[in-house]
Each structure stands twice: as structure tokens, then as C-alpha cells.
Amino acid sequence: MQRSSNGRVFRPSCGRSCAARGPQGWPRHSSSFEVRDVLREPQGGGDIREMVETGRVAAPEAAPPVIETAGWPIALRRWFVAALNLATIVGLAAGVTLILSGDGIDALEAVILAGFALATPWTVLGFWNAVIGLVLLHGPADPAASVYPFFEAGPAGRPARLASRTAIVMTLRNEAPEPSFERLEAMRRSLAKTGLADHFRFFILSDTDDAEIGQREEAAFEGFTAIFAPGHEPVYRRRRDNAGYKAGNIAAFLADEGAAYDYFLPLDSDSVMAGDVIVRMVAAMERHPRLGILQSLVVGMPANSGFARIFQFGMRHGMRSFTMGAAWWNADCGPYWGHNAVIRTAAFRAHCKLPNLPGRPPLGGPVLSHDQLEAAYMRRAGYEVRVIPVETRSYETNPPTLPDFAKRDLRWCQGNMQYWRFLFTPGLAPLSRFQILQAILMYMAPPAWLAMTIAACAKAVTGTFDARYVELGLGLFAVIFFLSISPKLAGALDVVLTRGAVRSYGGPLRFAVSTLVEILMSMLMAPVVAVYVTIFLAGLPFGRSVTWSGQNRDVLGVGWGSAIRAMWPQTLFGGVMAVTLFAAAPLALVWSLPFVAGLLVAIPFTVVTAMPVLGRVLSRAGLFAVPEESALPMVLKDLVPATARRWRRPVAGEAVRNAYAAPVPIRIDADIGSR
């Protein structure tokens, strides 16, 4: 095997042009391998100032028809949602102002008002998305016609044939490769059952710079390749120059290979999708040439980790109504989450190249949070970006511990803070511009809430705290907290109203207990998140950053020392606040208890939720279960350990009675495996 000084490509040998084509138009290859240089220029290769000056790009040349939806026109939907949100925000702001302005508004009260104005819009938008989504899911209208007519979930949506070729692209970096290749093998088997596997080819794009992990990747790839028929083998590409990070790796791949494929489907290393879902999405892209990006609704797989079970339980049912409501008015300007989506290759290559930002990292250099901008650029080019707002068979894993969750969250935060430079990029759709601003404000809200809390504490310490602040604290907290958990409440109501759904979550008792405990856990986590995001943002202008490297997706357990190092700022801040308020204004401490409690227990919360024993206990009890634990899809059959669903399938002789065997009726035809 040859070696390259810059990078490696393992693939069946062919000429540079791959002109000779085999069945279905694939390049015809022999069974030998070659290694090619995959060194590329930095991501985008251009300066943002130059791109801003050039501005607009052309719409699709053939100007295919837009996707028609039933019900209200899209413009009317957007004005309606804007009116709902503005009226709610103005009403809440008026209430806060009325409470604070009894004898004029001083500087600290102005901070409270400013923080409220900055933090509230994101919460209010989530509330209305959830309400609209719940009405669509259980009201008289048909969301399949008014929200996602481009995707057919029933038997009619399963294509008998395809006329295109799709590259399935998984990106890797410094992670244990064996689980990723197991997921790819599960997808390969699932695709084979559709009878349309010849229209797809797997590509593994590695940015791994750890030599030992790189060798394991190559060994896993060799085993994966041996399964394929000649002419359809997967391709492994590994770069040594990680310019542009994940987006740069995909850009280099598209520059070399993209012309041979109509679509590509990016996967993270923890992604899994059923073959039936993939071919339906590709068929939708073929039917609707204006579709540039088709994003699936990604949900978490059954997990061993107690933290992951709790987190993804709330996300699972909360996302359905939220995503449905957002898709109703986002329509052709929907989200792209960077993976588990089908993308039109030629349009992406022509219009979605990202610039290198001027200045040094972390705010300059390559764009980290590339997906939102790529969606905005695709929409600017005249293509539609749509999300399928119903559960299919599209999965990922969630971080197993709070520190891993925080690391991922801060990486997204760092990337979103680069968006300031794109707010005034010429040619963007107004909604795309709003979504970019929304992505920024999502991480400005935690510091805003923290500033409000500090200002209220200062009022207490200076002796100016009175009953008005109790009224503000308790009444306003109740309203805001209700708004913030409304997607989860709407999701829980959706489960209750959907026939058979409660059984798929473990039955009424398990579901009710899990829902209440998850809301409590969310309350404890919220101030922890606010503190670490605020500290990180404060350090960002001074070069503080999160390293782009491998993620922990499976390892459980956080030691007390690690938890103390990670959570001492939260504990210190909470302790100082509690002592100060107790000494100066005990009544104010009562008001702040929901906030202070989460900070004070941050260290034990981190340790306990990461304990393997907690995951075992929750799994055995069937708490925080997701529907796949009741009816395991075939694509997950070899990926989900029995220990993640002990209540449904006892392991090692454990006797667990399952009284809730009936699965929820899924919204797409799919094969169901072990029950």
C-alpha cells in the first residue's frame, strides 16, 4: 500500500476521470487499492469581505416549480407567528415594567428589564411553535398536506426505483471507529433490503490525527469493505491537513467526487438511518427539483447513560410539536442540522462554499457552525430547505455525561458567535437572516438571565428589595418557566392524545413519573448551563475556545475530582448568592431558590447522572424510555445493547414484567425487529 505525505484515500483503483462506468453508471473499478493526496486549500478559500461584496447568486437555471402546501399562504403564516410573538413579548415586558416602575426605574432595574428583553424572545418563540405544532398534530387540518406534502410516509411513498446516485458520507475525527462502522454496516443491511442499494455508495471522511486511532479506522474499513460486491466498495479518505474542519473535509470530498453524485447524505459518526427512510428522502428530492436540502427529524437512540436517558426523553416528545410548529411557518426556509439530511450536490457545490473569516480564531478563521449558514446560502440560491417534521427512522446518540454535553454545547456556542459577521450578507432571505440572529441570541439568553439574577440580588443586598420583587420573582418565574417547558408539555400532551403512544414510553405510570422528574432535572440544569455559557462567552474575545476533536459518546462515569474542576464556578457562585441573600434578605433567597439550588448541587448532579449504576436502575425500571425500547427497529437491532432496554428485554436472567407491549403506531412504514 502506497503512502502519501499529505493524506490518504483507500478506494478501488481507477483513472482520475473514472470514465469507464459499470452498472447503474457507477465508476468501474478493480479490486486493488491506491492512496491519493487529499490535501486541500482552507475551507472556502476566500475572504468574507470579498463574498459580501459579490453578494447574490443565481437561482436554479430551470426555475422548477415551488412546493405547494395546503392551507394558509406561507407569508400569512409568518405574519401571524410574528404577531403572536410580538404581542406576547410586549405583554410580558409591560408586566415587568409595571412591577418595577412604582417609584421609577433605577440602574439595577434597567438591567433586569434589558436582560428580560434579551432572553424572552427565544422562550416565547418556542412556546408558540409548540402550541401551533400541537394544534396541527391533533386538530382538524392535515399536516401532511399543509406542512410536508413533499414527503410521503405511507406505502405510496416507498419508491420502486430511483434515477439518481447518492453518496452517503460519514465524517470521523479521533473517535473509536468500531461503533461508527457498526452503524454503517447496519445502514448497509437496511439499504440492501430496499432493493435500491446500487444507487448509493458509502464514503468515510476522516480528519483523525491520532496515529493509533487512524490505524483502527483503516482496519475497520478493511473489514467493512470486504462485505461489498465488486464495483460498489466504500471509499475511505483521510486528511492530514484538517483545514476547515468537518465542513472543509466535505468540501474537499465534493471537489474530488461530487460531480459523480446527484445527492449526498452527510452523517456524523454517531448517525444511523434506516434504508427505507433514505430512499424515500432521495425519491422526494427527485420529485421536487427545487429541494436543495431535505432534513430528517433526528432522535436519540436508547441509551445506557442515565444522563442521556433523561436528556433525550424530554427532547424526544418535546421536539415533535416544536418542529411541526416551526416547519409550518419556516416552510421553504427550514433548518439544516449538519447531518442526517439529503443534499443536492451540484447546488451545494455551486452556492454553499463558506468563507474563511478575517482575524484569528476563535472568532476568525474557518466557520465552525457551518450548517445554518449553508442552509441560508442554499435558500439564497433559490432552492428550498425543508425539514420532515415527523419521526422516521433517523437517529443519533446523545452525550453520556453533563461535561460532555457542555463541551458540545460550547462548541456550538463558539460557532454561533461567528454568525455576527453574516447578519448583513447581501441576498439572504429575510427569514434566513432572522434565523442567524436567532442562533446568536440563543446563546445570549443565558447571560441575560444571569444578569437579571445578579441585579435582583444586588437590589436585595442594598436594602431596596421589597414585596414587589417577590411578586416579580414568583409570578414572572412561573410564567417564564411555563413558557420554557411548553414544548415538553405540548409533547407530553401529544403522547397522551396519540393512540398507543403512552404504552410505547413504558405505560402511564412510567411516562408520568419520567415527565415530572425530567422537568425537575431541567430546572436544575438551567442555571448550570447559564453560568458555563456566560463564562465561556466572557473569555471568547480573549482567545478562549473549545478544541475541535473527538467526542465521548459511550464512556460513562465522572469522578468527583473531574466534577469539581468542571463545576466549581457554578458551586461557588451559588454558594455566595445563597449566603449573601440569607444574610441580607431571606425572602429574596426564597425567590431565588429555583436558581440557587441547581448551582449548589452542580457537582453531585454531574457525578450521579454519569454513574453507570443510575443508567442500570433507570433502564431496569423503564424510566425515561423512548419508543424504540418497546419496538426495536431492525436498523438498530445490533446497535442497541440489551442493557439499554432491560425493562423491555431482561438480561442476565433478570425478570422484568412488561405490561405495555403494544408499540406506538409509527408514522412511516418501517421494519420492526426484536420486541
TrEMBL record:
Instruction: Note the Gene3D superfamilies from the entry.
Output: Spore Coat Polysaccharide Biosynthesis Protein SpsA, Chain A
One GO cellular component from the entry? plasma membrane
For this UniProt record, give its keywords in alphabetical order, as a comma-separated list: Cell inner membrane, Cell membrane, Glycosyltransferase, Membrane, Transferase, Transmembrane, Transmembrane helix
Domain (Glycosyltransferase 2-like) spans: 265-469
Main subcellular location of this protein, as a coarse class:
membrane
The record's InterPro entries line, in alphabetical order, gives: Glyco_trans_2-like, Glycosyltr_2/OpgH_subfam, Nucleotide-diphossugar_trans
Q: Which residues does the annotated region (Disordered) include?
A: 1-30
Instruction: Give one GO molecular function term.
Output: hexosyltransferase activity
Membrane-spanning parts: 79-100, 112-137, 436-457, 469-486, 519-543, 571-589, 595-614
Pfam family name, one: Glyco_trans_2_3
Known pathway: Glycan metabolism; osmoregulated periplasmic glucan (OPG) biosynthesis
Provide the protein's localization: Cell inner membrane
> Which SUPFAM superfamilies does the UniProt entry name for this protein?
Nucleotide-diphospho-sugar transferases
Membrane topology per the record? Multi-pass membrane protein
Q: Which family does this protein fall into?
A: Belongs to the glycosyltransferase 2 family. OpgH subfamily.
* Name of the protein described by the UniProt record: Glucans biosynthesis glucosyltransferase H
Give the lineage. Bacteria, Pseudomonadati, Pseudomonadota, Alphaproteobacteria, Hyphomicrobiales
